[in-house]
Each structure stands twice: as structure tokens, then as C-alpha cells.
Amino acid sequence: MKVSDYIVEFFISKGITDVFGYPGGMTTHLMDSFNKYKDSIKSHVNYHEQASSFAACGYAQSSLKPGVAYATSGPGATNMVTGICNAYFDSIPVIFVTGQVNTYESKEGLNVRQKGFQETDIVTMTNICTKYSTKIVSEYDIKYELEKAYSIAMSGRPGPVLLDIPMNIQRMEINLEDLKSYEEESIEYNVDDMVSLIYQELEKSKKPCILAGAAIQNSGMVDVFRKLISNLKIPVVTSMIAIDTINRNDEYNFGFIGAYGMRYSNFILSKCDLVITLGTRLDVRQTGVTKENFATNAKIIRIDIDEGELTNKIHKDEIQLISDLKTILPNLYAESKEWMAKGINFYKWLDTCNIMKKKLANIDERYPNKIIRKLSECIPSDSIITTDVGQNQVWIAQSIEVDNMRVLFSGGHGAMGYSLPASIGAYYGTKKNVISCNGDGGIQMNLQELQFIAREKLPITILIFNNYSLGMIRHFQEMYFDKNYVQTNSTSGYTVPDMEKIAFSYGIDYHKINKIEEMNVDIMTSETPKIIEIELSDTTYVFPKLAVGKLNQDQEPEIDRDLYKELESL
Fold it and tell me: What pTM was estimated for this model as a whole?
């Protein structure tokens, strides 16, 4: 069998139905092989390799299968690095395949910058942002390396892997009987003691809280988690990128925390006496710059599969439990039935949380938030929403009514231009209704993918929140640079094209919404691509916002001091 054919058959055997890439000289054998198997796996052409990498991320996030992206050597490979970083920081399993110059053209051992045309050492470049990155130099290593890469991408804390395959290796003929296999290393977590400890701490607690992270979705444990919360009956707050772990209207859902989080969510953390974190890394955007200000009155139990993340201690006396959620959550749920029989409840604490939520709900709501709330009414409940980076991302997190929706973010890497190509991957990963939310800045980062969506007539609705500025940076400049709006609005070097003309040029249906009432089910759902532009003032804001050094619950703009003291006294 030809090596490139073997690669494609391997992906098919893993249930991967769609892959994303861009043609190049060093991937022509792989491209030809994908075409041979087109009835079983579809190879989709993007218009930039970064978009291919983001599409693979969206496919993996939505389907829980590994994404696959390929590119040729040199600039093709380096164009994927942003997507590789995105997958690495957000724990997304993606297999990146890069073509490389023939082994006989390689500079191996020579003190030259480059020997072969477009030769670039992508393996060294990506060692720090992949779980595994290697160059395959023998055709007889292909089975071993594919199995190893797949295993590493999917096991433990998921993440990206990269296989760099020279062109002459791709075209080699192999005898399958001569190929060696990779023996997967399995890790078993003995969680009985962990579960016992958690329930012991819950029994001692008066004001417990669960902080849910993105690992709950990544591990496929959402249903188990929701049933667990239904039994425990304790408040849940989430990280921003984990807002879809619990339905917005669930009685135990108290919003997402952090610098741009809900005021009542941060207040609840300031009042609780026990925080159990599930698969969230407690970064600075969650805890604030001053760690001592985070959950100051609480004991913290941190559950994480990545021991490295636990080296960033938040409290000196925190309890750290290393486990995967696929193991510990089912065990916690099984034990919750015995917990329920004890009759322990936190009704008084829940009442306090609801008082805080009622007094602070919608206190920061502005026009964009109202639009997002209206959007929630106009799309199917199981839709997938992709967000870009900037103000639109936070408005979605604050105001989307999540009811079995999936909301995909570029979280840790925060890559503008993520939403549009990620929506392509999300569509092929699920074939569900997809809404791509963008700012006028982010949409231009991968605007060329409108051609992909138009070409394939994908039923993706593309929202563009157009404030004719880079809103989040403009806000920083207002706060910290005496309103010197350098390079962020139309008077200082940043401009926006006519979105209606853009839509026309790609042959995509276009609508402009000037007021909330114009948003309805007919506009928001379609069997064909659609661009909806929502025109905003150029002075948009994201509030609340935590200023450096302040208590997490005391966000900007300051609320009435009497109300603040009242909430502190609860």
C-alpha cells in the first residue's frame, strides 16, 4: 500500500469524516489519496492554512473526535502555527499533517539555512505548542507514528500533535506486515479516596460552590455533570469558555466568573466557604492579578488531569486532586444518591445566592447584550455558536441563553479570526445549525473563508457586530491612554469595508439589523449562507470589567456603595 493511502485509511478507521487543508506541492500525494477515499472522508479546501487549522479545531470541539488539518511545507506549515497554539491552549485534539521536502533535498547536517525549496523545520518550531511533534523519515514508521500521535492527542489532557512527512515518504509503497505498532500507555485513576474526601468537605461546608471548566465539555461529561448538580443542589459558576456546561436557566447556574464575568458570580465566590473546581486552570482572568482576592473565605479543591497546571497554586493550602473527569464525575454522581439520602441541604445558601443574582442581574446590560438575548429566542436550542475574540465574545458569554447549545471560543490563545473557519468545522462535525458571531475586526482576519461557505452553500448564519472600531482596545485607550484612539477607529488608521458589498461579491444573502425588533426566526435561520450586519455605535463597552488590584467582586463601573455593603453583609 502507498503511505499516503495508509494515512487516509487510518483517519477513516478512527471515524473522522472531514479534514481541512490547502493544496501544496509537498502534499499532492496526500491530496490524491483523500480523493481516492472521498466516499468515506471529505477533504475540504480552505483559502488559508490558518483557517484550515481553526476549522479542524471547530470540528474537534463540536464532534469530540480529533480534527485533522494539513498543509504543505514552509509557509503552508507556518501559517498553521496560530491554530496549533489555539488547540494547545484550549486542549483540543487535532492532528496536523505537514508535507516536507524530499529527504534527499533536506539540509540534514548542513550548516545552511535551507537546502530544499520551502524547507522549514516545523517540528522544532512547534515542539513548545504541541503534545507531540515529529518528522517521519522512514516509510515503515508510519503506522507507529500515526497510532502514537492519535493516542497522545486524545489521552490525558487532549491537545494537538504534528506529523511532518517528506514527500518521498508519502509516495513510498509499504508492506503492512512489516509495520510496527504503538503500544498505548493507559493511566488508571483510583478516585475512591478523592470522592470520599470531596463529600467529607461538602458535609463540613455551609456555603459550597462548584466552578465548572471547559474540560467538562471536552471530556463528554456534560450530561453526567448536570445530573450530579441536580442531586447535589449546590450553586455552580463557570469559566467563560465553559458557559455551555449548564443551561442558562438552570436553577443552580450562577453565571461565569472573572474579569468580565457576572458581578453576582464573583460575589458568590467571595462569600462561599468551599470551591470545587472541575477542569479549569484558574488563570489570571479568573482569579484577578492578586490571587489572595480570589475566594478569600473558601477552601479550594482543584480537580485537574494536568499536574503541571496545579503548580500555579491559588491558595497555599488548596487540595489538589489529579484525575480525568471521565473517571471522577461518574463516581461523584454514583455517590450523590447516598448523599441525597442524608438529607443535607444548602437551601439557605442558595437563597443568599439568588438574592445576589436578583439584585445584580442585568445591571450592566447594554444594547449589544439585548441583541444577544433576542438572538437566543430566534435560533434552535441545540445550535452551535462560534465566537470571535473581542467585545462580541464577552457579550455572547454574558447574554446568550444556553439551552443545550454549544458555544465555541478561542479561549487561552484568544485568536481573532477564529469564529468564521471554526463555524465551518463545527458544521461538518455535527451538521447542526451554526451561528458565527464576529466583530468587524475579527471577521477580516479570515474573511476569505466566506468563499468556502458560499462555494459549499453551508447553512451558516454569520453575524457581524459592526462598531467600526476595535472596540475592546478602544476601551482600553479610553481608560488608560487619555482617549488617544491610535489605530482603533476610522479617524486613526482603522477602517471597515462595506459589508453589504462584501456579501454581494461572495454571493451571500445579506441583511442589516438596525433595531432589536428586526431580529426574528426567519432572518436567523436559513438553509443557505447568510450575513447579518448589526450596526452599533463606535463607543461600545464591555462591562463589568475588573480593574487591576481590586477585589474580584468590585468590578467597574462601581455599583452603589450602599448596595455593595448590603451584598457584602449577606
Answer: 0.96
The DSSP-derived string for 222-240 is HHHHHHHHHHH---EEE-G
Contacts of 40 (CB under 8 A, 6+ apart): 12, 17
Condensed to tens digits (0 to 9), the pLDDT of residues 342-388 reads 999 999 999 999 999 999 998 999 999 999 999 999 998 889 999 99
Q: Which helix (H) or strand (E) holds 244?
A: none
> How far apart, in whole angstroms, are the C-alpha atoms of residue 255 and residue 243?
7
β-pairing, 18-21 vs 42-45, is parallel
Alpha carbon distance 92, 112 (integer Å): 35
Residues of the chain with pLDDT under 50: none
> What is the distance of C-alpha 456 from the center of its chain?
25
**C-alpha dist (Å) from residue 53 to 69, 79, 261:** 6, 9, 29
Q: 111 by DSSP, 3-state: which?
A: coil
At 263 the three-state DSSP class reads: helix
d(CA 384, CA 404): 9
Q: Which of 283, 279, 287 is nearest to 242 (CA)?
A: 279
